[in-house]
Each structure stands twice: as structure tokens, then as C-alpha cells.
Amino acid sequence: xxxxxxxxxxxxxxxxxxxxxxxxxxxxxxxxxxxxxxxxxxxxxxxxxxxxxxxxxxxxxxxxxxxxxxxxxxxxxxxxxxxxxxxxxxxxxxxxxxxxxxxxxxxxxxxxxxxxxxxxxxxxxxxxxxxxxxxxxxxxxxxxxxxxxxxxxxxxxxxxxxxxxxxxxxxxxxxxxxxxxxxxxxxxxxxxxxxxxxxxxxxxxxxxxxxxxxxxxxxxxxxxxxxxxxxxxxxxxxxxxxxxxxxxxxxxxxxxxxxxxxxxxxxxxxxxxxxxxxxxxxxxxxxxxxxxxxxxxxxxxxxxxxxxxxxxxxxxxxxxxxxxxxxxxxxxxxxxxx
Length: 338
Prior knowledge:
Elements: H1 3-9, E1 17-23, E2 28-31, E3 37-44, E4 47-51, E5 54-58, E6 63-67, E7 72-75, E8 106-108, E9 114-115, E10 132-134, E11 141-148, H2 151-154, H3 156-161, E12 165-168, H4 176-187, H5 193-215, H6 230-241, H7 249-255, H8 260-271, H9 275-293, H10 298-305, H11 310-321, H12 325-337
């Protein structure tokens, strides 16, 4: 499996928060749900997404992928543009609402709570039938929103490969047939509805990521553009296909039939990290996904991802992720149930 296939193979939504948002200007939604990744599709009208100090205008048919968990704002397109604000040390700066001058219609919290800025609950006031929400039953602006709450659902590779906001203009991303099918399912309430919605959201995400990567090859991480170098591409394919193999730099160089020095230099130049560092990262990425998508034991996972014992995997995982495998599994499970 090549790196791109590995990235696109993983998304598995589990009860994704999916709804149609209908708004009449002026409006502004302050999103603080701490989700791993959110898809926003403009169905009618338009909007503007303010995240990470950047502003993205969205027109009908556009899709935006918003990588969390930092807050962002979605507002009506005709709202005055925010003025730039001086940057400060990120380590000392408290989380703040992204700069915007539009009036806030609602604040979305970590548990998908919905309230006014002063805390008044808005769920009933802004509900308009099955999975439809907004300040109007038939507003000028209509958006489809789908949220992957935890990183385990979408895969760490996908979230790390994307920018804060990945914008795919109309006509270059998912076709209207897929979007129309998803919109129809959002409005329905049939048997197995949640499963159908989850799978359609997965397809929408995969097609959107593929479109963005195709349009921005120079902005993609080096490991995704590796096919330009057959030596690096071959090594990455070997690592991804056989993570449990006891790889060394020499063994990987032999795999792609070049010298150790040539391989190490080309790999680092293309991918941005030494081969063994990338191997460790890939193994722990696989381990993280297996911890959150299966109930397998740590010993079983360690064998599959190339660690000789669960203790060795636990030590490497804790050092890289900042938490133990068991605690990580519990945290991701709780996030998925929330």
C-alpha cells in the first residue's frame, strides 16, 4: 500500500455529527467543538470561514476541510472582513474566538451544545426538522456540515497531512451526485440511517482530500509526493506494507537497490525526516489507529507494528504521544461516545 492509499483507506466515521445548516444573514457561528476534522459543503448562498488567522470565502459547491481542535468561525459572506491582529506567543496566548466583526448567532461547544454567547440554549430555537438547524427554515445560505469528533475516526495521517483549512472549489472536488445523495440522507430518517450517513461522509472526505492533494502537490507532505522519487517511493511502500519487518537503513537501501548513504540522503530530502524516524512514526500511527478501532491486546498490536513486546511499544508510544496506550484508548473511546 502506498502512502496516499494508506491515508485515504482509513476514515471510518462513527456516528458523525451530520446536519444541514440554514441561515439568513446576518449570521456567525463560533465553533468550539474541538473536533478532529470537519467538512463544510456550501449548498446555497455562501459563507466565510475564519480560522488560524486566515479567511476563506466559500461559494456554492465549494468544500472546506477544517482541521481541529482549535476554534474557528463560519459567517455570512457579506460580513465585514476582520482586521489583522498582532500575533503573540502561542504558548501564552489563551484560546480565542477567531477575529470577525459579524454578530455571533451561536456558539457550538465540545459536546455539540448550541447556545448564545451569553449561554442561553438554542437547540430548540434553531431546530427545523430532521438534522436541519439554523436561524431560518429556508434561509439564503445553506451548508452541509459533517464532523469527525476524534482523530481515531479519520486517521492521524489524514489530519497531519492537511492544512488548517483545505479549500476545494466547486467543480474540482466531489461531484454533485454524491453531495445530493448525502443531502437526501440527511433529510431522511430510515432504518440504518446513521450507518448510511457515516459511510457517505467517509466517501465525501476521501474524494475531497484526493482533490485537494491533486490541486496542491507542492503543499502536500513529502511522504505524499514521494512517487516523484522511485527510490523513496519504494522504501515507503515497503515500510507501509511490512511495518513488522525489522527494518534498518541498510535493509531499506537494499530493498530499493541503492547505497545506504544515497538512500538516507534522498529519503530525508524528500520526506523531511530520517528513515528510522519515519518508520517509528508510521508504526505508532498504526498502533494508535488499532487502539481506537479494535479491542485487540497491546501484545497483539505490538507484534503487528514491529515491536518485540508490549512493553517496548508502550515505552515508544508514551514518548511519542505523551500518554500511555491504555490511556490513549480510553480517551479516544470516551470522545467517540461523547
